[in-house]
Amino acid sequence: MAPATRTEAPADEVRRPRPSVRHLAGCAAILLDADGRVTQWGGGAVRLFGRPPETAMGHDICDLLLRGTRRETVHRALRQVASGVRWCDVLSAECADGRVHDVVFTWEPLAHPGPWGAVMVTAVDASPPRHDGADASARERLALLDELSTHMSATLDPRQAAEDFTAFAVPRVADTATLYVIEGLLRDEEHPERAPDGSMRVRRLALKLGARQTDEVKWHAAFPVDEVVGYSARHPASRCMTANAPVFSSAADLEIDYLDRIIGVLGEPALRYLEMSSFLTVPLTARGMVLGFIALSRFPDRSRFDEHDKALAEDLAVRAAISIDNARLYTRERRTAQALQDNLAPRTLTAPPGLEVAHRYLPASAMRAGGDWYDVIPLSDTRIALVVGDAMGHGAVAAGAMGQLRAAVRALAGTDQPPDAVLRRLDHMAEDMDAIQCATCLYAIVDLATHTCSLACAGHPPPILVSPDGTASVLDLPAGLALGLGDPAFARAFTTTEVPMPPGSTLALYTDGLVESREQDIDTGIATLRHALASPGPTLESTCESIIAALPRQYDDVALLLTRTTS
Fold first, then answer.
1. What is the model's pLDDT at position 194?
2. Quick one: three-class SS letters along 453-466?
3. 486: alpha, beta or left, given left = phi > 0 and alpha = psi -120 to 50?
4. When comparing pLDDT for 237 and 319, which is higher?
5. Which of 289, 413, 444, 482 is most deeply buried (CB count within 10 A of its CB)?
6. Residue 108 class from Cβ within 10 Å (0-12 exposed, 13-18 middle, 19+ buried)?
7. Closest to 526 (Cα-Cα) out of 456, 475, 468
8. Under a CB-based contact definition with an 8 Å cutoff, are residues 88 and 105 in contact?
9. How would you list the strands of the sheet with 355-362, edge to edge?
C-alpha cells in the first residue's frame, strides 16, 4: 500500500486546521466504486451518519453526504487514489437528521479493484470531544482499522485472508478467533440457500488461539480448518447471519458438540471456565451479502464483550469481509476464465500429411487465464490454414474473446478466401463482439502443392520463416490494424503477402508474450527467437522446448506454433 500523503487544498477552498486525534468521536468504513458510488456501507457508517445501508448503497458519496459542495474535491481524491496514492482531508458531512459536522476522510486504493469496489474510505468524526469516552473509543477503532489494513496481506486466497484476520484479532480483540464462510460460497456462483429448518452449513477457514492455549495440535485436531459444520436456527451463528448483526452469547448458547470438543481438549474443568467466558459472533458482510461470520471469545480474566467491542468488531469485520470477498470473486473469475480457455482452446492440433506441427501455450500465471490462441485448420488435402492471435487482457473477458475469435476464424476459413479477406471479415465481426476491445491476429495459408505460404497480419508480431538451409528470416509483412479498433482512416487495409515455403521449411507464429518482457524490448526478443530457430533441435518438439528456454521469463501469456513442411 502506498504511504499516506496529504493533498494541498486549492486556493478557492477555505483551509481548516486538521483536528487532533483527541477530537475523534466516531469512525466508519465505507467502500466506493471508481466513480464514487457506495458499494459497502458498514455498521460504523450507520452509526456515524444515521443512514441505513438501503438508503446509501449505489448513491454518489457527494449527493449522499456532501450535497455536491465538494464534488471537485472528491473527484480529485478519486483520481489520486486511482493512481495508487492515499488521500486524506477534512470535509463537512451532513447526517440523516440534518446535522453537519466535520469529518476526516481517509481514502485508500484497494489492492485488487473491480466492479465491486475500488476505494476504501475511513470516515472519522472530528467534532469537539464529548468527554464521555466516545472519543477514546473512536480513537481505538481508528487505530485498529489502520493496523488491520497494514496487517492483512493483499492476498487473493480467501483462506490466507481469513488467517490474516484471525492472527490480527488475537490477542488485540479476543482470546480466540475463528472465521467461517457459508459452505459452497467459495465454489458456487450463487449464494447458497438456507435449509428449510433455518439451519446453516459453514466452512471453518481459520482458527487462531491465544498464547495460553499452548496445545495447538489438540485444538486444531478438535476444530480442523476446512471442516464443514451445521448450526441450527437458534445458534448464535445462524441468528447473527440471519439478522446481519452481531450477537452476544454465552456457553449456554453453544452446541453440545462444540462444548464436547472443548472439554475433550481442556478436560471437565473447562465447562465452568466456559460458563464465565464471553462470546461475540459478528457477520461478514460485503456488497450487501452475508458471507459468513467471525466467532470471538474472551476468557474470564478479561473484560466481557460490550457495546464498544461490538462496534469495533463490526468495523473490523467490514474490512475482513471485503478482503475475503475480493479473493472469492477473483477465484471465481479465474475458474470461469480457465474453464472457458480449456473448453475453447484447441486440445489437439491435427496436421495433414506433409506438415509437422508443434505448439506451446504458457499462461503468465496459474492464477489467471488469458486471450492468446492458435489453431491449425485443414482447408483441403494440400492447403492448411494457420492462425495465431492475442485478445488483449486477462480473465474471463479475454478468454471469452479468444473463444469468439477462434470460432469466427474457423467459420471464415471454410469460405476458402485469401488471408486479407479473412481478416477483413473478422474485423467486421469483431466490431459486434462486446468482449473484444482490441485483438491482434496473423492468418496464413500453407499450400503444399505449390510450396508457398500466403499471410496477412492484423497488428500482430511478424512470423519467422526458416529455410531448409537453416537461414531464419523475419517476414516483413504490412502490419495492418488490430481487430476491433474500427478506425475508418485505415479502411481495414489488410494485405496478403506470398512467400516460398519449400519442403523442409519451418514457419514460427507466436504472440508478443514470448518475445517481449520487462528485461528486453520486442526487437531484442525477436532476434533471440530467430537465433533459436536457426539452431533447431532434432525434432520440432525439441525446438519448441529450446525456444522457451532461450527466451526470458514471461510476464504475459505465451503462444507458440511451429509448422514444418515435409513434402
1. 73
2. EEEEEECCCCCEEE
3. left
4. 237
5. 444
6. buried
7. 475
8. yes
9. 355-362, 558-565, 506-510, 464-466, 472-474
* Cα–Cα dist 167/74, whole Å: 34
| Extended beta strands in 151-258, E state | 176-182, 200-209, 228-231, 247-249
Task: Dihedral sign for Cα 226, 228, 233, 235, please.
Answer: negative
Question: ω before 171 within 30° of 0 (cis)?
Answer: yes
Neighbours of 416 (CB within 10 A): 13
Contacts of 346 (CB under 8 A, 6+ apart): 374, 375, 376, 406
pLDDT for the residue 137 = 56
Backbone dihedral angles phi then psi of residue 311, each to the nearest 5 degrees: -65, -40
| Average pLDDT of the segment spanning 337-358 | 74
Look up cell 485488487; give the residue.
112
Q: How far apart are CA 481 and CA 459, in angstroms?
A: 5
Q: Please name which of 316, 328, 333 lies closest in space to residue 152, comparing C-alpha atoms.
A: 316
**Considering only CA atoms, which of 164, 168, 118, 166 is closest in space to residue 143?**
168
CA 363 to CA 394: how far, in whole Å? 10
Taking a C-beta distance cutoff of 8 angstroms, is the pair 559, 514 a contact?
yes
Query: Hey, CA dihedral for 335, 337, 340, 345, is it positive or negative?
Result: negative
Q: Which residue has 469529518 as its cell numbers?
A: 103
Do 484 and 439 meet the contact criterion of CB atoms below 8 Å apart?
yes
| Structure letter (DSSP) for residue 193 | P
Burial of 133 (0-12, 13-18, 19+ CB in 10 A): exposed
What percentage of the chain carries pLDDT values higher than 90?
26
